[in-house]
Amino acid sequence: MVRVFLKKGAGRSIKAGGAWVYDNEIESIEGAFENGDLAELHDFDGYFMGIGFVNTASTIAFRILSRKKDVAIDEAFLEQRVRDAWEYRKQVIDTSSCRIIFGEADFLPGLVVDKFSDVLVVESLALGIDRLKPVILEALKKVLAEDGILIRGIYERSDAKVRLKEGMQPCKGFIGDAFDTKVEILENGVRYMVDVQDGQKTGFFLDQKNNRASIHKLCKGKRVLDCFTHTGSFALNAGIAGASEVLGVDASELAVAQARENAALNGLQDVVRFRAADVFELLPELEEAGERYDVVVLDPPAFTKSRNSVKQAVKGYREINLRGLKLVRNGGFLCTCSCSHFMDPELFAKTIREAATGAHRRLKQVEFRTQAPDHPILWAADSSYYLKFYIFQVVEEK
């Protein structure tokens, strides 16, 4: 097998349990190979460290699959990885719709598979795993069938530009027979129509499942504002929990149209309203108009996807939190989150604190949460930890 050697003193992340080796950490590669091939990883002195994929076209030049020597990366190996991932989900989450495979956290680097009822949506972001994708999907269908779950279709959403960094073209489409790509799911008592073909990412953000449920206790009889609502998820959870009035806001006309359909699907169209608008522009307008809410939810997209733009992202998070805080009634609640890996927990907390100071509000922390457990956080694999979610009670300065 091809052998990849680290530079002396390099590989600190992978030695600490991480999953990646960067191109500037590699001293040499012995043997003929094509990018995406399996290779052994060795320290500078020849010490064996694992087996994984090599790709010199990528900044992430090696992704580890196994730390065991002489392991065969065959169908049985991949089926066991899939089986382990599914057994874990059955123990920690409602599996009617969930993320079944979460890349490095499930030891299948670069691969994401979401299950929406009886449909699978696949996102493949690494060249090596892309080659093994057909075998993994067959194993997944087999394992699910053992629990009586028959998959009627698979759709690929590998249309992220990050594939270009792996030497692959973005792509999307059916894997196997075509099917209706509008899929109805039930989560926390709320019905949604998920568009797996044209929705964001894989069609629906499953990672907020438990966080959406956590606001139910706050919303009965209350007035709620849900910012960056996408297809209405937090807004509809507020509605189903008995809110008296809910406004969901998103810049996307398409998302708002889907949110309205979801409200009608749940019989909430008279309680939960939606508006297509830029949140940064709308919040000051609502404040000036004297609007106040019992619960404000801030669920923005990632304002930064690289370390280089973190400073600019901080300004964005500070601004929306300041504006959101000013719209919360005294004694009401702010639910705020960041889904950017590069906005680390300490920086996010600092940014919220600064926003509270600017808004002259005091914060009582009710809860701090992360992503749902079907998106497990693998310690030492930092990229698997990205979602931070706070609930605060907001009180005026005493």
Care to describe what's here?
The chain is α/β, with parallel strands linked by helices. It has three domains: 2-66, Archaeosine Trna-guanine Transglycosylase, Chain: A, domain 4, CATH 2.30.130.10; 75-183, RNA methyltransferase domain (HRMD) like (Transcription Regulator spoIIAA, 2-Layer Sandwich); 205-396, Rossmann fold, CATH 3.40.50.150. It contains ten helices and 20 strands. Helix 9 packs across helix 10 (345-359). The mean pLDDT is 95.
Summarize this entry quickly.
This protein has 398 residues and is α/β, with parallel strands linked by helices.
Mean pLDDT: 95
Helix content: 25-40%
Number of domains: 3
* Major sheet: arrangement of strands: 16-15-14-17-18-20-19
Unreliable residue runs? none
What is the CATH topology classification name of the largest domain? Rossmann fold
| CATH H-level superfamily title of the largest domain | Vaccinia Virus protein VP39
Strand content: 25-35%
Structural class: alpha/beta
Give the secondary structure arrangement, pairings included.
Elements: E1 2-6, H1 12-15, E2 20-22, E3 26-30, E4 38-42, E5 48-54, E6 60-66, H2 75-92, E7 97-102, E8 111-116, E9 119-124, H3 127-145, E10 153-158, E11 171-174, E12 182-187, E13 190-195, H4 209-214, H5 216-219, E14 223-227, H6 233-240, E15 245-250, H7 253-265, E16 272-276, H8 279-288, E17 293-298, H9 310-326, E18 328-338, H10 345-359, E19 361-369, E20 388-396
Parallel strand pairs: 1-4, 9-10, 14-15, 14-17, 15-16, 17-18
Antiparallel strand pairs: 1-3, 2-6, 4-5, 5-6, 7-8, 8-9, 10-11, 12-13, 18-20, 19-20
